[in-house]
Structures are given as structure tokens and as C-alpha cells.
Amino acid sequence: xxxxxxxxxxxxxxxxxxxxxxxxxxxxxxxxxxxxxxxxxxxxxxxxxxxxxxxxxxxxxxxxxxxxxxxxxxxxxxxxxxxxxxxxxxxxxxxxxxxxxxxxxxxxxx
Length: 110
Known about the structure:
By secondary structure, the chain is mostly helical. The chain has one domain (about 10-90). Helix content is about 75%, strand content about 0%. The longest helix is centred in the middle third of the chain and has 55 residues, at about 45-100. The mean pLDDT is about 80.
């Protein structure tokens, strides 16, 4: 199996995910602000559900942001691991080439 990935794929993914995380936080804040005019307009079960949403909105936002932060941390860790692996592979190849006896591989009749 061959796995081929450009060196900047994970860092680009991390950057795009960071932007999405910011966008999600903004959207949640906009949703909460948009719901403000509805406060006090519900009765019964609707009021209970709305009040529950309102009281848990900060908790929901924190949980979503925490989850996205964990994803971003994982992406950053993968980026670092792939970068280190790529560098180590290059160093190993240079080391093996330096230790190789290329003269022994000649097929000339000398």
C-alpha cells in the first residue's frame, strides 16, 4: 500500500479547521442573540425548553469549542509526526547511502 501526501496537507487542514472553529463560535453567538427577542413569549413546555436552551447555551458553546480544540490538537500532532517522519526518513536514507559500499556493486572486470 502506498501513502502519498504533500508536506503541507495537514498544516493546511489545520488552518482551515481553525477558521471553521471560529465560524462555529460566531454562529452560536448569533443564534443566541437571535433568540433574545423570543424570551418571555413562551408558556408551558415551550418556555421550559427555551429557558433550558438559554441556560445551557454557554455550556453547549464550550463543549463544541472544546471538541473542535481537541480536533485541532490532533491535526497539529499528526502534522508534527508526519514532518518528523519525513525528516527521519531522509536522514536514514543519507546514513544508509554513506555506509553503502558502492564499489562492491560494480560489475566491471577489474
